[in-house]
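User: Sequence recovery, please. Input:
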């Protein structure tokens, strides 16, 4: 394999030119390099040393490195690496062992060498060979420029972070004050798989999801999360610190899973960084720092990395996982279990065919075709972006609703609605191309997220895509209920006044404060069914005054109020 071209500094070039005679015996050259820098096995074999000699004789001190951002490879700049090392130093000064499981270009290792003076051992692992050389040469440059610096034993290993024997390394370093530091890839396993990356963990369900979760969404885990869990599992009984630059969602998961994992980590801190400034990406990320070999913590402080100002404290409180413990203490009384089942809207994965605009007396689909179909199956449709107003009974789009419940046979369309059937059948190829397994072995033109609840005339709805806890009251247009798409969640009612009371309660101060205390705004979907099912309508109703409600809900009578209360009580008894 040819020697990978990387940047060679003048001081390193001069060093090797003076010692080029030793490059004919790589083990002798390795010994000289180790004396100078502490790096073990600088050259793995004679071929590497010989190829290196050819490069330096040609004086090729360049490298144009490929853009590896698609691999989630966001290299930490030197300034940020030093700032992280400084913050770590403010917590503990006497580290003896530093491990970076994805060391990249080595900026963290260089920062640690500069900051910590009692280091005895450094291990860096990196799968990308040019980065391995970049790190070795950067370390060598550092020691050639500062020859009197302490030289720990350094191993920069070309290897796979998912296959490296960390348990063995943990066993051999158990007696050393340890710092686990780094910036693992900001990418998921499915994203790496889609670009055919070899840098993937084995096909294991490491968080032990079951059933559909293991097949879909939750089985798609973050690579940084996998590496973080591996480090904590192997090294949580070492004295020292864990300090990773990772996505906020990983920190949330680590603290959430502490209820079952009980990693020996204490005083955890999530220090939010400006990833646009540091990496030029729009990702919510942070420095996660925690003490190892400590009493297992289930709460975490969130601070600003640049000012150290405390933003919030999140984690487990009274058996609930919350984003703000202080806010939750004030409004957690309405955190319980919803008596109404929140549903997601209609899912069809065929928008070009199933979603329509009405133009004059015709419909126009997403393919730009003007079509004729019966009105029977065409319903108004609202998407997340449509839920801006407090109340609405209007819509921009329509959608074809082929079923009233999941799995219902659709053969009736051919006999009762020939124009609609002809249209759907002529575009059957679009339905056949749907990749999701949920449509497998289902009737033609099947949809999901459909049931009796979909046809409730009044709905209290919220977007699942945005951070806002704004709810919208949706009323029917004419005789037909308005549908919501699968980015929205809703509860449905047959009676307008009952729906208005539910709408008033979810927008009440109690519920709004509670939602803000339990929602993690930087989650992929901050609002989800799990969150909404925590709204305790019984408690919200009991803590809300009828007189105040009657001033907000036009025409509200005591009998309406009492009817809602009875409905809630009855629902609780029937559970």
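Assistant: Recovered sequence (575 residues):
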């Amino acid at each position: 394999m040819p020697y990978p071209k990387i940047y060679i500094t003048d001081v390193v070039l001069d060093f090797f030119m003076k010692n080029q005679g030793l490059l004919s015996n790589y083990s002798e050259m390795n010994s000289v390099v180790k004396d100078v820098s502490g790096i073990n096995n600088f050259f793995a074999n004679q071929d590497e040393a010989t190829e290196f000699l050819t490069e330096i004789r040609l004086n090729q001190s360049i490298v144009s490195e490929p853009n590896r951002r698609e691999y989630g490879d966001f290299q930490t700049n030197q300034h940020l690496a030093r700032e992280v090392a400084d913050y770590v130093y403010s917590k503990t000064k006497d580290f003896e062992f530093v491990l970076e499981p994805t060391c990249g270009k080595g900026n963290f290792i260089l920062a640690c060498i500069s900051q910590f003076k009692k280091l005895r051992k450094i291990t860096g692992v990196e799968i990308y060979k040019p980065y391995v050389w970049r790190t070795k040469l950067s370390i060598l440059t550092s020691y050639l420029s500062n020859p009197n610096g302490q030289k720990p034993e350094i191993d920069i290993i070309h290897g796979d972070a998912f296959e490296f024997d960390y348990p063995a390394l943990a066993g051999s370093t158990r007696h050393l004050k340890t710092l686990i530091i780094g910036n693992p890839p900001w990418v998921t396993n499915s994203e790496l798989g889609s670009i055919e990356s070899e840098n993937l963990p084995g096909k294991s369900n490491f968080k032990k999801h079951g059933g559909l979760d293991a097949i879909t969404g939750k089985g798609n885990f973050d690579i940084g999360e996998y590496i973080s869990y591996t480090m904590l599992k192997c090294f949580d009984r070492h004295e020292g610190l864990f300090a990773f630059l990772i996505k906020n969602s990983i920190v949330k998961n680590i603290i959430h899973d502490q209820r079952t994992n009980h990693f020996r980590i204490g005083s955890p801190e999530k220090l939010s960084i400006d990833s646009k400034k540091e990496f030029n990406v729009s990702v919510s990320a942070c420095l996660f720092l925690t003490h190892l070999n400590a009493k297992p913590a289930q709460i975490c402080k969130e601070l600003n990395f640049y000012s150290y100002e405390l933003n919030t404290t999140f984690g487990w409180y009274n058996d609930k996982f919350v984003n703000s413990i202080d806010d939750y203490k004030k409004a957690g009384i309405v955190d319980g279990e919803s008596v109404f089942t929140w549903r997601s809207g209609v899912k069809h994965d065929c928008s070009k065919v199933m979603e329509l605009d009405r133009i004059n007396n015709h419909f126009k689909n997403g393919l730009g075709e003007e079509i004729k179909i019966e009105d029977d199956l065409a319903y108004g449709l609202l998407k997340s972006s449509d839920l801006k107003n407090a109340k609405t009974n209007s819509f921009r789009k329509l959608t074809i609703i082929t079923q009233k419940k999941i799995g219902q046979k659709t053969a009736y369309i051919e006999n009762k609605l020939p124009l609609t059937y002809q249209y759907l059948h002529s575009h059957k190829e679009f339905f056949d191309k749907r990749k999701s397994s949920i449509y497998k072995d289902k009737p033609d033109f099947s949809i999901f997220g459909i049931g009796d609840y979909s046809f409730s005339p009044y709905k209290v709805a919220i977007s699942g895509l945005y951070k806002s806890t704004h709810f919208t009251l949706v009323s029917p247009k004419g005789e037909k209920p308005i549908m919501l798409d699968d980015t929205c969640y809703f509860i449905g009612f047959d009676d307008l006044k009952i729906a208005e009371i539910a709408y008033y309660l979810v927008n009440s101060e109690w519920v709004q404060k509670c939602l803000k205390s339990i929602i993690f705004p930087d989650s992929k979907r901050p609002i989800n069914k799990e969150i909404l099912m925590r709204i305790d309508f019984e408690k919200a109703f009991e803590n809300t005054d009828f007189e105040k409600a009657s001033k907000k809900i036009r025409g509200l009578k005591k009998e309406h109020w009492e009817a809602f209360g009875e409905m809630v009580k009855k629902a609780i008894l029937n559970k």
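The chain has a mean pLDDT of 89.
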